[in-house]
Amino acid sequence: MRIGIYPGSFDPVTLGHLDIIIRSSRLVDKLVIGVLINSSKNPLFTVQERVNMLKEVTKSMPNVEVEAFEGLLVDFADLKKADIIVRGLRAVTDFEYELQIAQINHKVNPRIDTVFLTTSVEFAYLSSSVVREIAMYNGRIDELVPKEIVDKVYQKYKDIKKSDSI
To answer: Tell me, what does this protein do in biology (predicted)?
Structure first.
């Protein structure tokens, strides 16, 4: 059984992420979406909220699982018995960073390879940080994130504004 890991913060999941999930799920028997718990970042959504959003948008994909993890990606991949790590590339600048990470991951665990998928052209500009910026100012994000989470993103900012005014 070929198992792949698609890691990320997914804060929030975008249509670009979903594009990579759909395409990579066709390449493996099982795809584990690894939601990174990163103590050095201050995410908009909690880890559990991100996991739940990803489960919601992938519920029709029987070979996709979603799980939070912390620590080294190669250790998580080894734990899940993954053969490959899937990474999406939007631009050449992504490649430089991702190549370095892929090489060190392979050095740490030579059994695991990294597969790069280029983002579909319509999502090449898209990132979670762009979505957060637009949503913070109540801009339209319905063409940037899966429809199931549009209201969740707006509600998160409403909740933040409400708690800031208390």
So the answer is: Reversibly transfers an adenylyl group from ATP to 4'-phosphopantetheine, yielding dephospho-CoA (dPCoA) and pyrophosphate.
